[in-house]
What does this fold into?
Amino acid sequence: MKTLTVTEVARNFSAVIDSVESDGEEIVLIRNQRAVARLVPEPPEQTALTVLGDLCRTLDDQTADSLVKAVDHVRKARRGTLKQLRDPWAT
It folds into this structure.
C-alpha cells in the first residue's frame, strides 16, 4: 500500500490512476497528516456463471444439488419459440 498527499495525486492524477490500474496497488491519500481517502483497483470482471460456480463450491452437496435443479427448472421453463422469447406476452 502506497501513501501520497492529495497535492501529489492532484498534480499527477493520470499517472496515479495508471499506477493503480497496472500495479493493482492501493493508494492512501493524505491531507494534513491524516488519511482521507483510498484509491483501490476494481476487482476483475466476473460473469454470473463464474459467480454461481464459485458459490456452488462453497455449498454442501445437498444444497448445491438443489440449486442446480432449480436453475435447470428455470432454464427449461424459459424455452420457447423465438417469437415467445422476444415477446414474453405472446401466446
About this structure: DSSP finds five helices and three strands in the chain. The chain has a mean pLDDT of 85.
